Amino acid sequence: MTAPPRPEVAPPPVEPLLLAIDCGTQSVRALLFDLEGSLVGRAGVPLDGYRSPEPGWVEHDAEAFWAATALACQTLWQTHGHLRPALRGVAVTTQRGTVMPLDAAGRALAPAITWMDQRRAARVPVIHALWRAAFRLAGVAGTVRYFQREAEANWWAEQRPGLWAKLHKLVLVSGLLHWKLTGRFVDSVGAQVGYLPFDFRRHRWCKAWDWKWQALPLRPDQLPELVPVGGRLGEITAAAAELTGIPVGLPVIAAAADKASEALGAGAMADDVGALSFGTTATVSVCLRRHVEPLPFVPPYPAAWPGHFACEVQVFRGFWMVRWFKEQFGDREQGEAARTGRSAESLLDELVAGVPAGALGLMLQPYWTPGLRHPGPDAKGAVIGFGDVHTRAHLYRAVLEGLAYALREGRERIERRSGARLTSLRACGGGARSDAALQITADVFGLPVLRPHTLETSGLGAAIACAVGLGLHADFPAAVRRMTRAAQHFLPQPRQVALYDALYRDVYQPMYARLAPLYARIQRITGYPEKV
Against a cut of 0.85, is the pTM above it? Predict the structure, then answer.
């Protein structure tokens, strides 16, 4: 007599999970998020393949971005492999402006030129005379020439013509990873930040008549297809699944570049909320429905919310300066960190705590790298107000205060240009771990600063785009309400606000105008930085 068949038992329901791949400047991270925005799993692989074959050059092996991505995913599955059945989709966010040439087989023809690279083309394509006349009348001829000289495409075409003749596609890091994951030359609209023929007003490649096609040695077919944030880029191929461990056929959804994704992941979507990115490049940005240039002829970038614009001002070296200070002056903290297992940055925070607001008048202007318009291409950093009472602790506090002053200046420029008025700030990036930096920022801005519940905000922003693209949340505002929240508030302290306001207006703001003629003389005498 046979036993009756057992009734089938349905497997327990599995909460949907989203995989965000965050390829930053220092590492690649594979991040698992649930639909509440909680970080469920994380694995990281450092990006240590940067090379400087010439002064000012910063390259990275293009294939190493993909190798690190695959390794990060495989490392994640070593501890969270049981969660793979819950995956619903993948989204990628990456560092901005790092570009590489690929051949017809999708292989890199040369190392990627990173966003930190300072090489420039000497000979550039000639733009039609009518365009040149219009640029002169608008006072932006220098900006256009800067665009051409900075464009990596022009450098490759000038310096490596044989290589350039083999070009099939010119892609950003995001375009490379999407190609490797899906087998398609496709990229997100939200990732397009760089010296490319991109129409920042309409969020598409420029029309054929646009001057950028004359300024660059590129054809439309040499660029990837663009898909809006939240759109479907393709599916994980069998080859990608074998290397990464991501299930074959899983949808790949378009996210945005890291700064835009950070703002989304921090919940900075309203036009009265500023997003501060305390990364290698520090930025202040506001998400707007309108195309507003923070400086004339300097475009807003695509926001991670489709149809919106990230009006942004950059401090190019930003929280790189924390690393600079640590390397140049932080031997004690680095030694203690090695002995105790604490981070050197947390020890530096304790150093700041012993210094009064304003650093006893030590003022730092954080222009360690020149700019385009403000600061100009001959700008240099400056520290003024030294006295015999000042120590390296005062200098470190002056670094944090100088960065906050520069970001406040950017905020005021955005407010003047856009008419927006900020009422609060969201802090993102590695520098947002510092309580000292966030309290100084709240006091310098005179606004509350919110630290999000996770510092993996760029990955969370990519996960939000993935959730909306898959229909797991109704739209971007609904996803942000569910998946973002504040973990800590830093409120401005009235006494410090008054002190910083006086130092900012009476000392910091006049500094650049007073020192700019001296910077120009230094450039003329020494030849550094190179004249654009």
Answer: yes
